[in-house]
Structures are given as structure tokens and as C-alpha cells.
């Protein structure tokens, strides 16, 4: 789960995460905090772009699943942040010794250019509003040094009947939300994206896509969905 943007974002229109944020945050302190995250980390892809001595930010780390995995792989300087108190508490119980901290708003209290790489795994999918997504990626661009990389994993728009029905029902009930945004019976609010939307979001904040892969991953609710993973590099300083 991702930290929310600061005061400017909370004043955004009804179509942004500003209106949905209380629901989303409540979910990740309750039902969402018990979920098992499943998007796979591609070790080969990671190692191709991120050396073992890199300083890495696991942004929206949840209970530290990937933070712990990175340490298992020999990455010794990894920091996880998440706004959910329940998630961070769970992470510290399951993985004592990890560097996990709760941060509830942007910007984070971290220096610019202080990371060589950042992970953003299925975070945009729980930040439905365009303005909040842009603020989030802009913050990562601030934190990642020029030439550093962002490794993103998320869920694109699905084309099966169940998801198409979900998207259409969501548009009918809340037309101010972006297409691909939908709610789940347990109170979650999610968004699926067109891959070109993700690329535009990255490009608009100074990232250059280095590699993009598609695959499949289990969802939080036990289904299988198409997934997309992108490695993007922050443009070097001129």
C-alpha cells in the first residue's frame, strides 16, 4: 500500500484518491492487512539493473515480503515504508530486524537522490486517483538518484468477462472514477491500468522505460490475472 499525498492532493476532485482515501486506508488496517501478497520478484531482472551494494527503497512495502526477499538475495541496504500501522506491525513480527517504517504522507522525510533503486509493487493499483498517482511517482523521482531505477509491478486492464463487468458496473455507479477502478466485497478499492498509462506516468516524471514484461500473478482474492512489470531509469542529470 502507498502513502497518500499531502495537503495539495487531499483537495483533489472526487475522481481522485482524495475522496476514496479513508476507505482505502481503513481497508489496509483491517481486511487488507491479513492478505498475502503474490506478485513475483523477477530475480534476474532485478540483478540486471540493481547491484548488491545499491541502496533500495521498497515503497508501499506492506508487511515487508519483498524487503525480506531482497535481504535474502544479499541486498544489504533496503528500507521499507508503508502508511498502514497494521502492515508494519505485522512485518516486524514476521521479519524482526527489517528496516520498516510507517510513513503516512508525501513527501517522505528522506533526502533527494538518496536511493539507487526503488520497488513499487502493486502500489499504483491501490491509489485510484490520477493526481495522487502522479504525486507518488514524482516523489520516487525525487528520491531516486539520476541514473537509478524504478522496478514497478502492477495489474493491467483485464479482458475476461468478470473484470469487464466489474469495470462497467463501477463506471455506472461512480462515473467520476477512472475506468478500471472497482471495489471488492470486503471493502477494497483497486485500479487496473492500460500499459500505456503506466508508461506515460513514468515518462511524465522523468523516467525512461528500459524493459517491460508481461506475465500472470495470483490476486489477493485467489484469482489469476495478467500482470506487467517495468524497469524504468531516472533520466541522468543534464
TrEMBL record:
GO molecular function: methyltransferase activity
Name of the molecule in the record: Class I SAM-dependent methyltransferase
InterPro entries: SAM-dependent_MTases_sf (IPR029063)
Zinc-finger recorded as keyword: no
Keyword list, A-Z: Methyltransferase, S-adenosyl-L-methionine, Transferase
PANTHER family hit by this protein: METHYLTRANSFERASE, UBIQUINONE BIOSYNTHESIS O-METHYLTRANSFERASE, MITOCHONDRIAL
Source species, domain of life: Bacteria
Gene3D superfamilies, per database record: Vaccinia Virus protein VP39
GO biological process, one term: methylation
Keyword S-adenosyl-L-methionine: yes
Amino acid at each position: 500500500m502507498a502513502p497518500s499525498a499531502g495537503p495539495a492532493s487531499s483537495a483533489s476532485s472526487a475522481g481522485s484518491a482524495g475522496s476514496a482515501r479513508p476507505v482505502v486506508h481503513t481497508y489496509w488496517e483491517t481486511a487488507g492487512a491479513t492478505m498475502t501478497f503474490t506478485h513475483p520478484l523477477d530475480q534476474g531482472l532485478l540483478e540486471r539493473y540493481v547491484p548488491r551494494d545499491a541502496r533500495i527503497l521498497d515503497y508501499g512495502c506492506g508487511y515487508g515480503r519483498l524487503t525480506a526477499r531482497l535481504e535474502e538475495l544479499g541486498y544489504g541496504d533496503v528500507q521499507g515504508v508503508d502508511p498502514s500501522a497494521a502492515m508494519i506491525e505485522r512485518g516486524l513480527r514476521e521479519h524482526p530486524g527489517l528496516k520498516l517504517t510507517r510513513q503516512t504522507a508525501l513527501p517522505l522525510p528522506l533526502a533527494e537522490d538518496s536511493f539507487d533503486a526503488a520497488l513499487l509493487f502493486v502500489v499504483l493499483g491501490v491509489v485510484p486517483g490520477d493526481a495522487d498517482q502522479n504525486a507518488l511517482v514524482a516523489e520516487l523521482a525525487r528520491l531516486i538518484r539520476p541514473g537509478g531505477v524504478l522496478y514497478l509491478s502492477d495489474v493491467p486492464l483485464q479482458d475476461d468477462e468478470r473484470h469487464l463487468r466489474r469495470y462497467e458496473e463501477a463506471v455506472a455507479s461512480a462515473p467520476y472514477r477512472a475506468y478500471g477502478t472497482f471495489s471488492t466485497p470486503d471493502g477494497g478499492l483497486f485500479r487496473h491500468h492500460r500499459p500505456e498509462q503506466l508508461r506515460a506516468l513514468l515518462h511524465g516524471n522523468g523516467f525512461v522505460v528500459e524493459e517491460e514484461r508481461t506475465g500472470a500473478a495470483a490476486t489477493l482474492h485467489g484469482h489469476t490475472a495478467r500482470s506487467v512489470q517495468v524497469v524504468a531509469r531516472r533520466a541522468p542529470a543534464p
